[in-house]
Amino acid sequence: MSTMLLSALVVTVVGWFLLQQTRDGLVDARVDRVLAEAANETEDARARLAAVPGADDEASLQLRQLIEPIIARGASRGFEVVVNGPLGDEPTVLAASGPRYSPGLDLDSVPDELIDQLDEGESSAWTFTEVSYLAESGRESIAGVVVGARIQLPADGRYYTIYYLYPMQQEQETLALVSRALLTAGAFLLVLVGAMTWLVARQVVNPVRMARRTAERLAAGHLEERMRVHGDDDIARLATSFNQMASSLQRQIRQLEELSRVQRRFTSDVSHELRTPLTTVRMAGDVLHDARAEFDPVTARAAELLQTELDRFEGLLSDLLEISRFDAGAAVLDLDDVNLVDVAHRVVDMTRALAKQRDTTVVVEPLTEPVLAEADGRRLERIVRNLVSNAIDHAEGRGIVIYVNGDDHSAAIAVRDHGIGLEPGEASLVFNRFWRSDPARARTSGGTGLGLSISLEDTHLHGGWLQAWGESGAGSQFRLTLPRRAGGVLRQSPLPLVPTDAVPSRVVVEDA
């Protein structure tokens, strides 16, 4: 369309220019011929007048000798004649008496400006005009040229003006023919340009469309998809480069998939292989821990440390096994109707000792009750426990509130703390495996760095959302949203992600 519009503009401008040049050429040539012919007619009239006797009573004869031949030649040669005079001291108007102009001519065809020029003493002058004729059907006009000249009649010595009116009908017909030819040629040229543009566009756009379709299939996982290569032009080289890029991406993706598979297999194998020695070490550790009262203080302390680290190691191993099940796609849900308010209270009871150790209070504020959802109670409880434990670990002694709410389509739990918060960009990283906001901080909850990752996987398994908001120094809020019924589609959450007590100018929302 852009090419067609530009071509139409160019054709229009060029056609207008050619038409103007043609018109100017026709008009200039016609004016030159008219001026030469009018000059010849005037000289011939002067010669005829000089041959007629010059007595006063011969003035009428000389006037007829002036007028009649010119009118007759004008009728045969295609021009009109008007004779005006005699001229006096005052400006005159065209006389309408006697045979002094060509029959049928409208005397208004002679412009007043030209009459004034000749009346003021100029020997000859010319201008463009509209040559008009009086006919039964009405007044008819055509563009033309009028030439005026002054002639002195020898019989009485007075001056008369002769006006030669030359219609330009032939030039107008020629110009109309040229206009039609230019219009036809322009239309044909536009059609030709359109056809060429369509052909070139197909040659260029079709490979691009093919590349788009191939890229979409590659993005959909069809890594063997390739473009067909024809010829050796730039498009063909582009297709070759695209295929090479696709092959390189396929190799790298397969390498990453293999590496990920090996990594998952390694994690799974290590987790399972460590189960047996861990059980043995756990049994020995339990024996030592139970008998620590009989040991000296240093050995007793070592037994306690051994028991603590075994608990952490066993928790890490359990998390690794759970991650392995998620990676293998072996995790399944045991669905039941669960009251989220009861889940929140149970988690508060489980973490009360940890909260007391950190000098933190955890309270539940249900906005509606009960809040039921079809979910796996064990996994749901693990999600909330991880969120609360994480909040206790970062609350720095300030209170924690668990909000619970629901609507007709969804149920939500939000854990709000007023601790150190999150730096900009960290809300999208908190669910990464083994990620910590500040690795140098002391951690009393004994976390493995996998808790939030497992929570996110559990949430996705339910078809829900797990999102985080945080601001440095203003605390953070984690929101879990689940559909009321398994397989439902979430459109909104009954709880806001940004807490109502957040400072508006400092609100930063990031979803994970």
How would you describe this structure to a colleague?
The two termini are 45 Å apart. Helix content is 52%, strand content 17%. It has a six-stranded mixed β-sheet with strand order 6-8-9-11-10-12. A four-stranded antiparallel β-sheet has the order 1-4-3-2, with helices on both faces. The model is unreliable at 95-99, 442-446 and 504-512 (pLDDT under 50). It is built from ten helices and twelve strands. By secondary structure, it is an alpha+beta fold. Helix 4 (169-219) runs parallel beside helix 5 (234-290). It has three domains: 2-176, PAS domain (Beta-Lactamase); 234-328, Orthogonal Bundle (Helix Hairpins); 335-510, Heat Shock Protein 90.
Key features?
512 residues; alpha+beta; Beta-Lactamase; Helix Hairpins; 3 domains; 4-stranded antiparallel beta sheet; 52% helix; 17% strand
Strand segment count:
12
Kindly identify the CATH topology of the largest domain.
Heat Shock Protein 90
Main β-sheet, spatial strand arrangement:
6-8-9-11-10-12
What number of domains?
Answer: 3
Order of helices and strands: HHEHEEEHHHEHHEEHEEHEEE
Query: Largest sheet at a glance?
Result: 6 strands, mixed
**Shape designation:** rod-shaped
Number of helices: 10
What would the average pLDDT be, to the nearest integer? 82
CATH architecture classification of the largest domain: 2-Layer Sandwich
Question: What structural class do you assign from the helix and strand content?
Answer: alpha+beta
Q: What percentage of amino acids are in beta strands?
A: 15-25%
Assigned CATH class of the largest domain: Alpha Beta
